[in-house]
Amino acid sequence: MKETDQIKFWKKVGTSYTDANDDWNSSTQSFRISHANSYILKDFGSIDRDAKILEVGCNVGRNLHVLHQDGFKNLYGIDIQSYAVEKLKERVPNVNAQVSSALDLPFEDNFFDVVYTAGVLIHISPNDIARVVE
Fold first, then answer.
1. Nearest to 118 by CA among 32, 3, 2, 34
2. What pTM does this model have?
3. Residue 96, SS3?
């Protein structure tokens, strides 16, 4: 993974950011369903539950967890934080999650039916945004 200034920054602050925004409830084995999650389900409502879906910047997997609970079977996630990816793997073991950057996706072109991100683009340098979206 190419070490951009932003990736270096997120590697420094990522653990504290993840912990501060983590709303996993260990007694119910689920995340608190947020307003944003309801939009994810609405937007994905007509997608085939067997579609291959990638979330870029998945953090601990809140959105992927919601999609899995809704019946999606082929879920993938990438995040630059190994700490967040390990938490995701513990909590949502049916998701194929790995450490990677939006600038260097470890998949073949056209492997996925759907690729999405939620709340990540604001963290991408303006110098890299066109490449990430591409």
1. 34
2. 0.83
3. strand
